[in-house]
Design brief:
By secondary structure, the chain is of the alpha+beta class. It contains four helices and eleven strands; from the N terminus they run H-E-H-E-H-E-E-E-E-E-H-E-E-E-E. Helix content is 26%, strand content 30%.
Length: 251
């Protein structure tokens, strides 16, 4: 092969690589300057509805989707003294119904960015009093890949749900990590039970249950379980593999 031919081939390769780099840069725009690069809780456009926490799950079981009433502002005080112990599946059903009510579509083709559950400490924590979910998916605007997002919050003790969307977020070349919701074997309440059996119970009893419990999963991490006492800080932190249940305790 003569030198001229080699130069031509190298020049063609350089041009092709340049075109590929320009295409990637245009589609994903990894250096775009935007104020927000990751979700900010619910989003910019938000709304809220009242729910009847005592009847909503049964109503959804009966196929009644008319369970949301317009809420001009979220309640400042609890509307119920009942202790709620809703499970991950309960919150998922409500959020699916809320999404259908607001956008008239499903979340089947959306990925999960985070699932967050909270409850006050009590003698037998088996569920949760609050949940926050955030979903995302890739969309294209003017040939550029970006992320659209939707956030949801359900608070049965205060009797309301909230939804949010926007802004659109820049799409990194490698993309965001997502929670593999269809492959998870350990639910949030099962993770809570495992944590209880692995030091969580002793941690909350050390402050006479004057604490709160958070069970969260984000991206491709495991379930993060926190027990927090406002006066002391973190009393307990563990990570639980959502596929195997293996637990890792942190000091």
């Amino acid at each position: 092969m003569n030198k001229n031919r080699v130069r031509i081939i190298l020049a063609i390769v350089a041009v092709v690589l340049s075109v590929i780099c320009l295409a990637i840069n245009y589609i994903f725009d990894p250096f775009i300057e935007q104020v927000q690069r990751y979700p900010s809780y619910l989003g910019l456009e938000t709304g809220s509805y009242k729910i009847d926490s005592a009847t909503i799950l049964q109503a959804l079981d009966n196929g009644d989707a008319n369970v949301f009433r317009l809420e001009l502002s979220t309640p400042e005080a609890p509307i119920s003294n009942e202790r709620f112990s809703w499970k991950q599946a309960d919150y998922t059903r409500i959020i699916s119904a809320l999404n259908k009510y607001v956008w008239n579509d499903t979340l089947d083709d959306w990925k999960v960015y985070t699932l967050q559950f909270d409850t006050e400490c009590n003698e037998n924590p088996t569920g949760f009093e609050f949940a926050h979910f955030y979903y995302f998916k890739t969309i294209f605007i003017h040939g550029q890949a970006i992320y659209a997002g939707r956030g949801f919050e359900v608070n049965p003790k205060y009797g309301y749900v909230e939804w949010g969307s926007g802004p659109n977020y820049p799409h990194p070349i490698l993309g965001w990590k997502s929670v593999k919701r269809n492959k998870i074997e350990i639910t949030a309440e099962q993770a809570l039970k495992l944590a209880e059996e692995s030091g969580g119970r002793l941690a909350r009893l050390s402050v006479q249950n004057k604490c709160s419990i958070g069970v969260n999963i984000f991206g491709d991490t495991g379930w993060q379980i926190y027990i927090n006492d406002e006066g002391v800080g973190w009393l307990y932190h563990a990570e639980i593999n959502p596929f195997t249940g293996k637990i890792n305790l942190y000091p």
